[in-house]
Design brief:
- By secondary structure, the protein is α/β, with parallel strands linked by helices.
- The protein has two domains: 4-163, Rossmann fold (3-Layer(aba) Sandwich); 171-322, Rossmann fold, CATH 3.40.50.150.
- 36% of the residues lie in helices and 19% in strands.
- It contains 15 helices and 17 strands.
- The strands form four sheets. It has a seven-stranded mixed β-sheet with strand order 9-8-7-14-15-17-16, sandwiched between helices. Strands 2-1-5-6 form a four-stranded parallel β-sheet, sandwiched between helices.
- It is globular and about 65 Å long.
- The two termini are 27 Å apart.
- The model has no long low-confidence stretch (mean pLDDT 94).
Length: 364
């Protein structure tokens, strides 16, 4: 049977390079800057920047006055393409984007959350064999469909590919058969929101919880939020998950995007960087078991997996791993998990989010 990738011969950046329509960015911030950089690199002219009406106050971004959609329509009629430059899981905002896409040509370019480069057609073809290996490893048809649609989204920027396969986030608990005696390890615990989600699902019934969060502000929020659990049942660590016990520079953004960075970036804005302790899961557990391991660590998933190698080999905890931070995550993470523990069944799901920022690997 032919692999679906073989039938794809164009990607979004080819479409944008060939069009004579005006290119309009929708949104401001890091996403817009990344997409603008790709447009510049490929010599694709940018015409304008727009935002939702409530965010337009006559200000400029990247030297261009930010406009409303109605202003863009008045300027260009229907002769423009909108590129969504932000992520959201807010239902009303997602519906608004969907509504605009029914009126105008709209895409959400895939640019990596961490690292450089693009998941374009050349990249996909270069890693075709690895992508096909992952496709064949997936345990059910829904996983294969999610995998195919997310790849098609990455190449085309078309959000319909994501909405077609999205399933509720709560599905993961049934898929992973989460019970009331779990030893839960939460890597990238943020302010405790995913621990609370776990507690709600299990009606506060569990054996023990370990939580790692490298950002100090988030860690303090986590401790305040989970004070009722007590230190005997909750071990919380103000550190990041890694493949060795060390310290690294962290870009501290007091949000979900805090992440380890190469040292060279620290000189750009020293106030935003701090040295943070990093810890292997195997060191933290000291040979004790885990039954459920969640990783959403802003691009450090591969290193976190290597740091949990002994735990995975000895106890085969159920895994919940983010697959959207780096271009290579869609193939490298599943293949690594499979190499560490052959008996795992691998599943892939995409939960409601624009762009593909809640696409996860589940293993049990």
């Amino acid at each position: 049977m032919a692999f679906f990738l073989d039938e794809i011969n164009e990607c979004l950046w080819d479409r944008l390079k060939a069009t004579e329509k005006k290119i309009v960015l929708y949104g401001m911030g890091d996403g817009a800057e990344k997409i603008k950089a790709v447009l510049d690199e490929r010599e694709i002219p940018l015409a304008d920047i727009m935002a939702s009406d409530e965010f337009v106050r006559g200000h400029s971004f990247m030297g261009i006055r930010v406009k409303t959609l109605s202003e863009i329509e008045d300027l260009y009629g229907d002769d423009f393409i909108i590129l969504v430059c932000f992520g959201t899981q807010i239902p009303e905002v997602m519906e608004k984007i969907a509504y605009i896409s029914r009126k105008h040509e709209l895409y959400a370019p895939n640019v990596p959350v961490v690292s450089d480069g693009l998941f374009d057609l050349d990249y996909a073809k270069e890693h075709r064999d690895e992508l096909e290996k992952v496709y064949k490893l997936l345990a059910d048809e829904q996983s294969k469909k999610v995998f195919e649609n997310v790849i098609r989204y990455k190449l085309s920027g078309k959000l319909d590919y994501l909405t077609e396969v999205e399933t509720p986030s709560e599905e993961k608990f049934d898929l992973l058969k989460i019970g009331t005696e779990e030893i839960y390890v939460d890597l990238g615990a943020y302010d405790g929101d995913t621990v609370i989600e776990f507690l709600n699902e299990t009606s506060m019934q569990f054996t023990k919880i370990y939580a790692m969060e490298p950002d100090a502000k988030n860690y303090r929020k986590l401790k305040r939020r989970l004070y009722m659990i007590g230190s005997a049942l909750l071990e919380a660590y103000n550190c990041g998950a890694w493949d060795e016990d060390t310290s690294v520079l962290f870009n501290l953004r007091s949000g979900r995007s805090s992440k380890a960075v190469p040292d060279k970036n620290a000189s750009l804005n020293p106030a935003r960087f701090r040295e943070v302790n990093m810890l292997k899961v195997d060191t933290m557990l000291q040979g004790n078991p885990a039954t459920y391991l969640k990783m959403d660590v802003e691009g450090a998933e591969e290193k976190a997996l290597f740091g949990a190698r002994e735990t995975i080999a000895n106890f085969s905890p159920k895994l919940n791993i983010a697959l959207y931070h780096r271009n290579e995550d869609m193939f490298k993470i599943p293949l690594l998990v499979n190499s560490m523990q052959k008996k795992y069944k691998l599943y892939m799901r995409h939960h409601p989010y624009f762009p593909d920022w809640d696409t996860n690997l589940y293993a049990l």
